[in-house]
Design brief:
With 203 residues, the chain is mainly α. The chain is built from 8 helices and no strands.
Length: 203
């Protein structure tokens, strides 16, 4: 029962986060795309696709990584090792955020941006909204974006499985820098042992 309640709590929380992030990314992408040429818009679409592939790779690496190497790194006091341990311990939630939240948002926004690029290109070439030429351009560009997304994620998954330890360690270092320098805390580094010690000292 506790597991189900935790799952529902996480699902509701991640749904709200997705709603907020989707709104923010949509506003930003619309603002950036407004007034730009179709060539620049195409570059922006490819950047959005790359972000989706990048976060999908990190999410897969989190589920494939083994916790033991990071304990050895933590014993050597390597920066980011403790955060890497926490990523592997929360691999399901971390992968859900990277793969589903960021990945799906990137897919939706890239589709919207692709439609804008097709429209701008069609207007520049003098095609009407209902012309066969615009329809052909739309199919071609959408197919290219889909192929890059699927192909990129396939390569990213292979890379993530083979180099999961190195990838998650670098992510852990990034989280460490965010926490130390920018005071942005994503994970709590305190473990169960310290909590037990606190309880014993209080008694």
């Amino acid at each position: 029962m506790k597991v189900i309640l935790k799952s529902i709590h996480w699902s509701l929380g991640i749904a709200v986060i997705t709603l907020v992030l989707a709104a923010i990314f949509s506003v930003i992408s619309t603002f950036i795309l407004s007034g730009v040429t179709w060539a620049i818009g195409m570059g922006i679409v490819f950047i959005i696709v790359f972000l989706g592939v990048f976060f999908d790779t990190i999410g897969v690496a989190a589920t494939a990584a083994n916790e033991k190497p990071f304990h050895a790194m933590a014993s050597d006091r390597l920066q980011g090792a403790k955060h890497a341990v926490l990523i592997t311990r929360n691999a399901d939630k971390f992968a859900n955020f990277c793969n589903d939240v960021i990945g799906d948002i990137s897919g939706i926004i890239s589709g919207t941006a692709s439609a804008y690029v097709v429209l701008q290109l069609s207007l520049q070439l003098g095609y009407s909204d209902t012309s066969y030429q615009q329809f052909a351009i739309s199919i071609l560009f959408t197919s290219v974006v889909a192929a890059l997304t699927v192909g990129g994620k396939a390569v990213g998954k292979t890379f993530a499985i083979h180099y999961s330890t190195a990838i998650i360690y670098q992510v852990g270092r990034l989280l460490y820098i965010l926490e130390v320098r920018l005071k942005i805390k994503v994970f709590s580094v305190s473990n169960g042992k310290t909590k037990k010690k606190d309880k014993l000292t209080r008694k």
